[in-house]
Design goal:
- By secondary structure, this protein is an alpha/beta fold.
- The chain has a single domain, classed as DHBP synthase.
- Helices cover 33% and strands 17% of the residues.
- The chain has a six-stranded mixed β-sheet with strand order 6-3-5-4-9-10. Strands 7-2-1-8 form a four-stranded mixed β-sheet.
- Helix 1 packs across helix 6.
- The longest helix is centred in the N-terminal third of the chain and has 15 residues.
- The protein is globular, with a radius of gyration of 16 Å.
- The N and C termini lie far apart (38 Å).
- The relative contact order is 0.23.
């Protein structure tokens, strides 16, 4: 596991074991603390909606270990998506793409797109690589409440509703990821977060 202390390695190994058995964990990412589970497990995904009080019509984003895993969840990866991924991954950019049939409807709220990113945090990537498939990566807070920046924030917001909180110290980012829809003819910024529109425009000047 890349650049993890022995203490963190132990926590990550335990977290991967919980993910494999259908559990829900909280963990640090490069932006904020996230809530995660195996994206293929309907019961675990339902628990995440319940824990957050998140409306079921809101799709859940997925975290990948590297850009090479994109084809597993995305039906097509346009050239511009590859350019943005090359520039900003690992990092705080979420791309919305047409989904593969294998991505369950309970992840996408029945929609035909999926939101994905590769986080720039060794714990988050170690969890994905340890599980071997994408991990749900939504913010570890109650829906509509401030994002959790530390393990203590997660405990204060969610108590014992998760099976494990991986304590990797303060999340370094502080801002949630920027979300760009690259599934249609036009690129659309759905949420401007840690990556600014100006930075995106350097790669793709026509960005909306």
């Amino acid at each position: 596991m890349e650049s993890l202390s022995p203490r963190l390695k132990k926590q990550v190994e335990k977290a991967v074991s919980i993910l494999k058995s259908g559990g829900v964990i909280a963990f640090p990412t490069d932006t904020v603390y996230g809530l995660g589970c195996d994206y293929r497990n309907p019961k675990a995904v339902a628990r995440i909606y319940e824990i957050k009080g998140r409306p079921p019509k809101m799709a859940l984003p997925l975290l990948l270990g590297n850009a090479g895993q994109l084809e597993v969840v995305a039906l097509e990866v346009p050239e511009v998506a590859r350019r943005l991924a090359e520039k900003f991954w690992p990092g705080a950019l979420t791309l919305v793409l047409k989904k593969q049939k294998s991505v369950p409807d309970f992840i996408t709220s029945g929609g035909d797109t999926v939101a994905v990113r590769v986080p720039a945090h060794p714990v988050a990537r170690a969890l994905v690589n340890g599980l071997g498939v994408a991990v749900v990566g939504t913010s570890a807070n109650l829906s509509g409440q401030p994002s959790a920046m530390t393990a203590e924030d997660v405990r204060a917001a969610l108590g014992d509703r998760v099976d494990l909180i991986v304590d990797g110290g303060r999340a370094p980012g502080g801002k949630e990821s920027t979300i760009v829809d690259v599934s249609g003819e036009k690129l659309v910024v759905l949420r401007e977060g840690a990556v600014s529109k100006a930075e995106l425009a350097k790669v793709y000047p026509e960005i909306a």
